[in-house]
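Chapter review: from sequence to fold.
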Amino acid sequence: MTNIIDKTAIIDSSARIGEFCVIAADVKIGAGCVIGNGVVIHRGTIIGDGSRIDDHVVLGKLPMKAATSATTKDDELPPLRIGDNCIIGTTVIIYRGAVIGNRVMVADLSSVRENVEIGDFTIIGRGVTVENFCRIGKYCKLETNVYLTAYSEVEDRVFIAPCVATSNDNFIGRTKERFKHFKGVIIKKGGRVGVGAVILPGKTIGSDSLVAAGALVTSDVVSRKIVVGIPAREFRDVPQEQLLENQGWE
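The token string follows.
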């Protein structure tokens, strides 16, 4: 045998399992799933019907807690849940305690930490990192190499371009005072963030607003406004034809 499958795992008869996989106790794999080679699925993980898990993926990984970690908790985490018809790319790691909706794609080389929720139809691009205690809505797109810091919230229909970086620590790792003030970013419904932008801790990007490429967001962005520059400043209104309400999606 090339696979190690615990006898308590429940795998639908229509699912296809590659070679050199490790499937731990109490795992559930739904109908029509395709599991690639070298996949490791940790205890209790639940995978919905029709999902595709590519080679060398790790699902349900337990978090690592460094002695100086400020955000990783010791709490018992519920099993990872992956919805129906998802695609999980090669070498992706998704931690225990995450909840992935239906028809979500998590592209190659990405990492999704514990206590994360991702809504239906969202795309997590190649090499994206989603840290712990984040919520991402439906129909979002986080493109290549986005870094979403812990304790952030991204509402529905948000677009985040490649290499956007966010932060949750205004003290940059110094003094105990920082432990009282950790706060991620909030991007409201329909917000858009351009390539290479940086959003500082606790800032809110208003609904249907646009942060231009390369901008440095040091204060909240008003809804339906475009901001540009370092530091980001208000430039003009988002054109009416670009507003979410005029796209025919709702």
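Two observations follow directly from the output. The chain has a mean pLDDT of 95. The first strand starts at residue 4 and ends at 5.
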